[in-house]
Design brief:
There is one protein chain. The chain is α/β, with parallel strands linked by helices and 386 residues long. The protein folds into 2 domains: 201 residues, NAD(P)-binding Rossmann-like Domain (Rossmann fold), CATH 3.40.50; 181 residues, Orthogonal Bundle (N-(1-d-carboxylethyl)-l-norvaline Dehydrogenase, domain 2). It has a 6-stranded parallel beta sheet with strand order 5-2-1-6-7-8, with helices on both faces. A 3-stranded mixed beta sheet has the order 4-3-10. A 3-stranded mixed beta sheet has the order 9-11-12, with helices on one face. Helix 4 crosses helix 5. The longest helix has 24 residues. The N and C termini lie far apart (54 Å). The mean pLDDT is 97. It binds nicotinamide-adenine-dinucleotide (NAD) and D-Mannitol-1-phosphate. It comes from Brevibacillus porteri. It catalyses: D-mannitol 1-phosphate + NAD(+) = beta-D-fructose 6-phosphate + NADH + H(+). It is an enzyme of class 1 (oxidoreductase).
Length: 386
Amino acid sequence: MLAVHFGAGNIGRGFIGQLLQKAGYEIAFVDVNAALVDELNERKMYRVQLATTGKPESVVEGVRAINGQDVAAVAEAIATADLVTTAVGPNILPHIAGAIAAGITRRLSVHAKPLNVIACENMIGGSEMLKEHVYEHLTESVQAEAAQWIGFPNAAVDRIVPLQQHDDKLLVMVETFFEWVVDSSQMVGEIPSIEGVTYVEDLAPYIERKLFTVNTGHAVIAYLGYQLGMKTIDEAMRDDRIVQATRGALQETGALLSAKYGFDPQVHGQYVEKILGRYTNPLLSDDIVRVARSPIRKLSQHDRLVGPALQCMEKGMNPEHLGLAIAAALAFDYPEDAESARIQASLKEFGWENTLHNCTGIPAGHPLEEIVREQARRLKEWSGSH
Ligand SMILES: NC(=O)c1ccc[n+]([C@@H]2O[C@H](COP(=O)([O-])OP(=O)(O)OC[C@H]3O[C@@H](n4cnc5c(N)ncnc54)[C@H](O)[C@@H]3O)[C@@H](O)[C@H]2O)c1
Ligand SMILES: O=P(O)(O)OC[C@@H](O)[C@@H](O)[C@H](O)[C@H](O)CO
C-alpha cells in the first residue's frame, strides 16, 4: 500500500507518517524543502522520539520523498496511491492543489479506483477546502468522474510537535498523546484500517472541540506569554496569570461547546485538564513563536479565537478571556513572522479599530469590539507589569 503525504515537517513525520507506516503503508513524502527530500531519500528512514521519561524512540522505515516542484513525479505517485494526506498548513493548500489535480487526472485516465485525500490541518473543513482548490484545476469531465471516485474527508489531528533542533535533521520529538479523527461519511471505497484513526459520521463536534480547546488554549498562552517576554509554552504555564486566563478562555469555549453539542460538562472538564497538563511538558520545550505563528490566520472569523468569541456572544455569553487573547494576538509584534509584520504595519497605517475589523471580520460596532478594546487596555497593564 502506498500513501502520498504532502509536508514532511513536524506533524507529517512525527505523527501522520508514523501512524501510516505502522498501518503497513509505504510512504512517499512530498515536500519543497530540497535538503529534507534528499535526506529522506538517502536514509529512507527516520526516528521519532517521545517527550517523556527515558525519551523512548521508534524508527519509521520504508519512506521516500518527492520534490513538490516535480509535478509529474507527484502525479505519478498519486496515480497509484492508496491514500493521500497533507500537513502543510492551511495557507499552503492552494499551492499543492495543482499537483493533486494532475495526479487525479492521471489516475482516472488509467483506472477508476477509489482514493481518499485527507487534509490534516488545524482548520474547520480543511479537506473540503482542498477539494475546491483541486477542482479548479480539473476539467468538467474529470470533475464528474472525481465526484464518484475521489473522497475528501475532513479530519481533526491532535499531537503537539514542536520545532525540532537536533543534529539528526530527520529526528522528530513528539508528545505521547495523539488523536486523529476522520469523517467517514465523506470517504469513498473501503475505509482503511489505521490504528490510531477514529472514524466518525459527523466531524463537527470533534474538530470544534479540538480547535476551540487545544488550539484556543495554546493561542491564549502564546500571545499572552509573548507579551510577558517568555520563550516557551511550559515557561508561560508557570505564570499564574496566564494559567487563569487560559482556564477562563477554555471555560468560555467549553460552555459554548456544551451548549452546541451537549457535551457532558464533567467529561469536557477532564478533557480540558488533560490538555492543560500537556502544555506544561518541559521536555517538549515548545517555542511560543511557533504556537503564535500566522496571527492573521489565527484571528480569522472561523478560527480558534474570534470563531468561538462570536458564537459565545450569540448565546448571550461574555467572552472576556477570548477578548484578551484577541487583543494580545493583535499586539504580537514578531517581525520574523510575515503575518505579524502585516498586522503591525496595518496598526501603524490604519489604526487599531480598522486593523481589528480587517483581520477578524468583527463588524464595526459589534459588541465584541468593545470587549476586545477593554481587554486591550487590561493587556497594557499586564505588559507594563512585565
Ligand atoms: N506541529 C503541531 O503540533 C501540529 C499538530 C496538529 C496539526 N498541525 C497542523 O499540521 C500542519 C503542518 O504543521 P507543522 O507543524 O508540521 O509545520 P511544518 O512547518 O513543520 O511542516 C510543514 C511542511 O510543509 C512543507 N511545505 C511547504 N510548502 C509546501 C508545498 N508547496 N508542497 C509540499 N510541502 C510543502 C514544508 O517544507 C514543511 O516541511 C499545519 O496545518 C498545522 O496546523 C500541527
Ligand atoms: O499549527 P497552528 O499554527 O494552527 O497552531 C499552533 C499550535 O497550536 C498547534 O500546532 C498545536 O501544537 C497542535 O494543533 C496540537 O495538536
